[in-house]
Amino acid sequence: MLFQPINRNYHDFSIVRDKDACINCKVCIRQCAYDAHYWDESRQKVMHDNAKCVGCHRCEALCPTSALLIQKKKSEFKDNALWKPEFIKYIYKQADTGGVLLTGMGSPVGNIPVYWDKLLLDASQVTNPSIDPLREPMELKTFLGAKPVKLEFGKSKDGTPKLKTKLSPNIELNYPLMFSAMSFGSINFNLHVAMARAATELGICYNTGEGGLHKTLYQYGKNTIVQVASGRFGVHRDFLNAGAGIEIKVGQGAKPGIGGHLPGEKINEMVSVTRMVPLGSDAISPAPHHDIYSIEDLHQLIFALKEASEYRVPVSVKIAAVHNVAAIASGIVRAGADIVAIDGMRGGTGAAPGMIRDNVGIPIELALAQVDQRLRDEGIRNRASIVAAGGIRCSADVVKAIALGADACYFATAALLAVGCTLCGKCYTGKCPWGIATNDAKLAKRQNPDIAAKKMVNLVHAWGHEIEEMLGGMGLNSIESLRGNRDKLRAVGLSDTEMDILGVKHAGR
Amino acid sequence: MKRVYPDKDYCIGCHICELACLTAHSKSKDLILAYTVERGSEGLSSCKRVHEGGPTCVALSCRHCDEPACVAACISGALQKDSETGRTTYDREKCVGCWSCLMACPFGAIARHPLENKIVKCDLCADRPGGPACVAACPNQALKQEER
Fold first, then answer.
1. Is there a shared CATH topology between the A13-76 domain and the A167-506 domain?
2. Same structural domain for residues B108 and B131?
3. CA distance A267 to chain B (A)
4. B5 in contact with A at a CB cutoff of 8 Å?
5. Cβ neighbours of A58 in B, within 8 Å
């Protein structure tokens, strides 16, 4: 390419334009946030620059004559099992820039097994009846928080039984699902409105992420979990008392061990006020919480937050799934957390160094099984609920997660897919053509909260129906009966070690 | 009456409403032919115009006013207010191309036909079974036909 670096032509996508169908209406030019399409004045037609295409498919989706096709560029390097094309391209990029390679969304690497795909569910045949969820009641209601070891009853004055045990605060969910943390700033206000409305309509919760909560969204507090992360952005007394739960974010599955960085360009007026940071300044979340260097410190923070919220709401601690996750989770529960959220290594992000995202942490399935087992072995499983996050793609993943011991699942990538995301992974540029990971006024309005909320509601309804069908097939009429019920799972093609960690038998056994 | 209302907060400036309008008012009812052939040969044009300024954009067309200035100004009786449907109707045959309506319309919602001494004005897709094409085509529900 003339006047360009020599590796510019090693791009990922090709734009294929059907000459018969393209009418030069310029819709693609207006939709592309990366200027891959442009109007060629001398040729009087729409042209494109393949090197700029990020593969978001926005132009393809909106082309009124279906004239566009976005393809992987067919050009291939000589086959090399060690030097896969992505590694070659990483090196070219870094040789040019000298910088850390940034990425967005969850890890796409294929060499780490997706254990959901290796697990199969049971169904009732002959000896026990399956249940038709359309004819019989099916309970998906889920309560998150500490449960008592035993219940004590007394009698009230008129002789009726009365519960004497004082119950801990719990979050009530109509589905074992929640929208996971995506901060206001990383995604825009329209999507926060959509998530808040969808969660309210569904009777579930969404998580504010670490960017605080905009004043106008306090009305959805009953369906909100407010997050306190290492940057403490937007954290104040009203914020802590605005939601149905408080979450301390220690780690994130996509980038365990590192903090966050919201670039100044994304800090507009609204984000600045909500985060309580100056307009246009970078919002940097440190890697650790500077007041947590031990389980005892975590204990202090948990109870500081409980004090601040007058013990009305449960406190959750979210950690990334890492090597010693079971012991860490045990410590978290003993420190007083009511909910432990574990985020697996395939969890999404708005921005993370690719090397961290693809190489740090462990899959959620293994972490979840180990945490549940450890808490049960120690006799403290009732003291906290477990929420599994990071790579929940469908209702079957949810059912398998619950059978492995989760009380509920967090999902976010699926929610973004529901509103148009195509996983192009360029969230960190702040120019999301689907209007998701951007605060650019012109791009952000591509998300109409009315449409987005409806799509999110539809998705959860659909998953709910499927979960009911799967439960019914197993002869269960309540999600409670599935929780930690690993007998309902069988593995295919896993080693003895993997099955031992997951606590499941091989299919056929 | 039900009018088409644009929502500037969610208009994404894609101009797809213009293409839908063009197609709905074409002979072929085919976007590719309407845009590439009829637009040039017959001066087919959209009644809808997307106006942009910075990040704001909004798709405008005739508002079918309760007391339309264009009807009052029309010297030939081509523009009429239909008391039953509430539409401001345009009879192409009667139009003499005096442009009085263009001057009178306070919203700039009437355009000159590019080839003939006629005007281009929204008819709310009177003959289209599904209602206005622009509303149906908007990918972001930024155009709504409703009673307000």
1. no
2. no
3. 17
4. no
5. none
Work out the pLDDT band at A264, boundaries 50, 70, 90.
confident
Amino acid at the residue A222? K
Q: What is the pTM of this model?
A: 0.95
Average pLDDT over residues A203-225: 97
**B10 and B55 within one domain:** yes
Determine the distance in angstroms separating the CA of B65 from the nearest CA of chain A, rounded to an integer: 28
Secondary element (H or E) of residue B58: strand B56-60
Average pLDDT, stretch B27-46?
96
Cα–Cα dist A22/A32, whole Å: 16
On whether both B5 and B53 belong to a single domain, the answer is yes
CATH superfamily of A167-506: Aldolase class I (3.20.20.70)
Domain ranges for chain A? 13-76, 167-506
* pLDDT over 80 (residue A1): no
- Among B7, B14, B58, the strongest candidate for a mutation testing the A interface, having the largest count of A CBs within 10 A, is B14
Per-residue pLDDT tens over the stretch B3-33: 999 999 999 999 999 999 999 999 999 999 9
The predicted pLDDT at position A6 comes to: 82
Q: CA nearest B138 in A: which residue?
A: A62
Q: Give yes or no for a contact between A437 and A420, defined as CB atoms under 8 angstroms apart.
A: no
Architecture of the A13-76 domain: 2-Layer Sandwich (3.30)
Judge whether A118 is closer than 8 Å to chain B, CB to CB. no
One domain, residues B24 and B38: yes
Mean pLDDT on A89-100: 94
Statement to judge: residues B72 and B38 lie in one domain: no
- Tokens read off for A345: 């290594």
Nearest neighbour of B9 by CB, restricted to A20, A64, A445: A445
Per-residue 3-state assignment (H helix, E strand, C coil) for A181-247: CCCECCECHHHHHHHHHHHHHHCCEEECHHHCCCHHHHHHHHHEEEEECCCCCCCCHHHHCCCCEEE
Domain count, chain B: 2
Q: Which two tokens stand for residue B122?
A: 């929204």
Its domain, for residue B111, covers: 65-121
